[in-house]
Amino acid sequence: MSSAPGELAMSRWGGWVDRALAWRLAWRDRLLASPAFQRRAAAFALTRPTARRHARELFDLVAGFVYSQVLLACVQLHLFEMLAEGPQSAERLAARLALPVDAARRLLDAAVSLRLVEHRGEGRYGLGELGAPMVGNAAVAAMVQHHAALYADLADPVALLRASARERRGNALARYWAYDEAQASSDAAAERVGAYSALMAASQPLVADEILDAYALGRHRCLLDVGGGDGRFLATVAERVPALRLMLFDLPAVAERARARFAAAGIAARASAFGGSFLADPLPQGADVASLVRVVHDHDDANAMAILRAVHAALPAGGALLLAEPMAGTAGAQAMGDAYFGFYLLAMGRGRPRRADVLGAMLRAAGFEAVRLVPTRMPLQTQLLVARRA
């Protein structure tokens, strides 16, 4: 059957628009790549601000690694904690940092340019607007120091992109996260999960309050946290929702650490930890809400679907799932998803950042319904999808 005249006209119009857009973008690319145009744009008063902004943004991409290393040096030397005591001179800080005065000034001036530190007059330095939130922030400090492994893997990004999955298993990040290869064996060495658990526990406050402020868990009776690490998230939940029963599922060595945390927090009577592999073992029953906090993006599609189906099987009809993690395509934070997490997970050897709509389709394929994106205050840190078991 032939298309209706209106449909044919719309199709032709859409094709013309696509060709016009392609032509315009090709013309723009040729123009911006022209050295002559770049010189004219930098000289002309109306285009000069845009030309300068583009040059600055491009240079920031080139210099980004150096900026991150300035931050790392500040963290490793505990500079922010020193400045929290009050403004100090470069000479006094040099002595406390165990640096030559010239090196201390170089670090301090670099930190000033990055708004980590501020000049306070009379040759003194104080906390900057980006340095002040670093004081006592164990989560961010742990992530900054952890990035040494990521930078080692990114030393040759082309080689990383060309490497096979087997070759990427030798990466620094892949070795760091290799604890999960122990699967559910009861003899998994505690030291294999110690560093992982410490990092996850330190960074968990970045997302726990975001989730709990966005979704009222008080409507439920029991929460199952799948891949819950050493229980830091559930310990936070226990403080916020006193009547909620809590269950955690993770590898045996990790679950053992969670039991110790629950006991130390005085919540062992209402919080249980179960050991196993969510890729091979059934999840414990009895919860009416489950959470996957920064779990799904660590896995490729097949394993991610296996996890979602396992959670679906563990929930009763009408049970809810909270899927919380940084997501690709986050408005205002697109680079975080596709650039940062895209390459972080590539170096790790598995997983990928996914858009909220892609995760929603996966949830529905696993049997969930009524999938909705719940706003969080800091979507750069985490976004939250809520779904219901059909």
User: What is the helix tally?
Assistant: 17
Cα separation of the termini: 39 Å
Q: Label the overall shape.
A: globular
The CATH superfamily of the largest domain turns out to be Vaccinia Virus protein VP39
Percentage beta strand? 5-15%
How many strands in all?
A: 10
Average pLDDT level = 87
Could you tell me the radius of gyration in angstroms?
Answer: 25 Å
CATH C-level label of the largest domain: Alpha Beta
Structural class: alpha/beta
Kindly report the spatial arrangement of strands forming the biggest sheet.
Answer: 6-5-4-7-8-10-9
- Judging by the overall fold, what is the CATH architecture of the largest domain? 3-Layer(aba) Sandwich
- Would you tell me which CATH topology of the largest domain applies? Rossmann fold
| Poorly predicted ranges | 182-189
The biggest sheet amounts to: 7 strands, mixed
Number of domains: 3
Helix content: 40-55%
Description:
This protein is α/β, with parallel strands linked by helices. It has three domains: 1-33; 64-134, Orthogonal Bundle (Arc Repressor Mutant, subunit A), CATH 1.10.10.10; 157-389, Rossmann fold. 54% of the residues lie in helices and 13% in strands. It contains 17 helices and ten strands. It has helices at residues 5-32, 35-43, 48-76, 79-83, 90-97, 101-113, 138-153, 157-162, 165-168, 172-176, 190-203, 205-214, 232-240, 252-265, 301-314, 334-348, 356-365, and strands at 88-89, 117-119, 124-127, 222-226, 245-250, 271-275, 289-293, 320-325, 368-374, 383-389. The longest helix is centred in the N-terminal third of the chain and has 29 residues, at 48-76. The protein is globular. 31% of the residues are buried. Mean pLDDT is 87; it is low at 182-189.
